[in-house]
Amino acid sequence: MSEILSTATLMTHVRKLAEEIGPRPAGHLAEMRARQYIRQELGALGYDEIETLPFLTPDTWGYALGNPLALTLVGNLLGTRSRMGKLLGGVAALGCAYTLWRSTRIDKQPLAELSPRRQSATLIARVPSTEEPRRTLVLLAHTDSNKHRLSFHPRLKKYILGVTTVALGAMTGNGVAQLVEALSGCRGAARFRKASLGAVLAGLLIALGDEIGPYVPGANDNASAVACVLGLAAQLRQQPLRHTEVWLAFTGAEEVGCLGAHALLDAYGERLRDAWFLDFEMVGTKEVAYVTRHTGFSLLSTYRPDAESLAWAERVSRRHPEMGVQGREMVIGEEIGALRVRGYRGVCLSGFGPDGWLENWHQTSDNVAHIVPAGLEKAARFAWAMIQDLDAGGI
Ligand SMILES: [Zn+2]
């Protein structure tokens, strides 16, 4: 067994990112410092060509959630007086519901761009194959961390998907009600418009309340993932693959809508059309799984890995029962969502806690003290087994 993927080495990366650099909001200096650290580590391993893909990002997903809700509200207020205003307000509410739904399934969210934006970037290092390349594999780990959010409190988190779904329903209903009211003057529609507006306002208040917490250290989310991919970068140096070119992608701004993964596809979508993607999320826990079904962030936002990637993970799981990594359906939204919605392959390795949820998810308790080093090592070794299986032409 390789020493490179030992707990000691992996934990060094986690400590550096989550303790020394600390919370890493998208587009802030600390996120850039995380990229500097990754560059330095890759440089020490002999990776001298590291590409930076810059892009602009908001620093919180609050805009992706709050902007459509606020615009729906404004549309209603402006539209109350005239028929034309109601027609426009109705169309605006439906458009806002659509963009919010897009962001719950990790698609691009154009309304989030109506917010202050900062510079973020995705780092890419490439590991060529020793012989003729037959496939490309992209390993994904995000560098940024999220805020402490009240809605993710262990007692409240089970309501998240319901609340966003109600918000989507309220916005859609509100839009339809405004159109019906404008066209027919129906009183029932007017009453429904007012009731749905209450739900939109409640959603906006929840979104605002969720913004007041501090940014978290992100030891699990997602220093654990960066540590795994840096470990695998070292492993690949020692034992390069024969027929698989590997891209190591350290994405920025995942926590605000997977912007770093979208930037990667915007730049290299054609080249990566047939690539394999393996994403790492919050793997610093005792238990690790490959995700068979992701909820996204509403009850209408489910996505799944593609059949081939799922078969790949299943095969490696069967061959290595001693690792104890199995398939699992999870409440999660991450970069595989961005890939799947754009028609790419992809599967996610994720940790989970005793309650089956992501552990210390968007809570200040997401710190180094709560990382299970053995779980981190398990994730890295399982990923290495998957990588070797792919290179051996298992598929
Ligand atoms: Zn994450």
How would you portray this structure in words?
This protein folds into two domains: 261 residues, Zn peptidases (Aminopeptidase, 3-Layer(aba) Sandwich), CATH 3.40.630.10; 103 residues. Helix content is 48%, strand content 15%. It is built from eleven helices and eight strands. The protein has an eight-stranded mixed β-sheet, with helices on both faces. Strand 6, helix 9 and strand 7 form a beta-alpha-beta unit. The model has no long low-confidence stretch (mean pLDDT 95). It binds zinc ion (ZN). Zinc ion (ZN) binds next to helix 7.
**What fold name goes in the CATH topology slot of the largest domain?**
Aminopeptidase
Helical percentage:
40-55%
Molecules bound to protein: zinc ion
Q: Strand-residue fraction?
A: 5-15%
CATH class of the largest domain: Alpha Beta
Ends distance: 24 Å
- Chain oligomer state: single chain
| SSE sequence, one letter per element | HHEHHEEHHHEHEEHEHEH
How many strands appear in the DSSP assignment? 8
Counting DSSP H or I runs of 4 or more residues, the number of helices is 11
Estimate nothing, just give the exact number of structural domains. 2
Radius of gyration: 22 Å
Which secondary-structure class do the elements indicate? alpha/beta
- The CATH superfamily of the largest domain turns out to be Zn peptidases
Shape: elongated
Strands ordered across the widest β-sheet: 1-2-4-3-5-8-6-7
The unreliable regions are none
The biggest beta sheet is recorded as: 8 strands, mixed
CATH-level-2 architecture of the largest domain: 3-Layer(aba) Sandwich
